[in-house]
Structure to design on (231 residues):
């Protein structure tokens, strides 16, 4: 396992469902991120948390709601999604922002989300 | 705003041969980092190599090396002695070191390794 664990690995949900994606890391990192990966598009940064505080919301629709209860866990709550939200959702963690950002991220294996 | 461009959607290389993946970027910053990430079918993004912009020497990690041309804003990845396990999507990424330290990724290059 990579150090960053994402569950579930696959998720199929209807447009009226509510579900949550979970990300967990025990690397001692204090910055965590949600990215959306769609086919033939660059990875899109969604949210950034630094020491449990949200520091970036990249104009993400409110049907995506992040939660970071502590530095080791990050959730993405999903509600009334659209078919175009189907994608691979990647979580990553790193050293705190503003410090050794050049060390790079550690990514999870993602959740493949299909909205039907 | 910074942009990262990978103009090769797909590349193929014969096993044991060498291949170069291209990446160009645009920025007005002087201090930044560049990365290559590999995403195999397992979907986990793995850091391959990184280059700090202030370093003139090209980074090398075993069979992986970069050709960093700062003035030309070019950052290509060379894979020597290609192996079947190198088959993956490769993403070039720019890390801005101002503000929120966020990554900007290219669209990726799919590398196929032929036996």
């Amino acid at each position: 396992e990579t150090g960053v664990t994402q569950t579930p690995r696959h998720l199929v949900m209807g447009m009226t469902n509510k579900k949550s994606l979970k990300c967990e890391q025990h690397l001692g990192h204090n910055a965590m991120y949600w990215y959306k990966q769609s086919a033939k598009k660059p990875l899109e940064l969604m949210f950034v948390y630094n020491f449990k505080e949200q520091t970036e919301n990249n104009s993400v629709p409110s049907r995506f709601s992040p939660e970071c209860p502590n530095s080791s866990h990050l959730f993405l709550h999903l509600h009334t999604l659209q078919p175009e939200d189907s994608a691979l959702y990647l979580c990553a963690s790193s050293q705190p922002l503003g410090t050794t950002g050049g060390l790079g991220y550690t990514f999870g294996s993602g959740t493949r989300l299909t909205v039907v | 705003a910074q942009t990262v461009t990978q103009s090769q959607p797909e590349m193929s290389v014969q096993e044991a041969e060498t291949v170069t993946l291209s990446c160009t970027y645009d920025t007005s910053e002087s201090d930044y980092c560049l990365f290559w990430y590999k995403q195999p079918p397992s979907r986990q993004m793995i850091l391959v190599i990184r280059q700090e912009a202030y370093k003139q020497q090209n980074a090398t990690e075993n069979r992986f090396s970069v050709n960093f041309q700062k003035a030309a804003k070019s950052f290509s990845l060379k894979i020597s002695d290609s192996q079947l396990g190198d088959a993956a999507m490769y993403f070039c990424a720019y890390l801005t070191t101002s503000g929120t330290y966020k990554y900007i990724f290219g669209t990726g290059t799919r590398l196929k390794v032929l036996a």
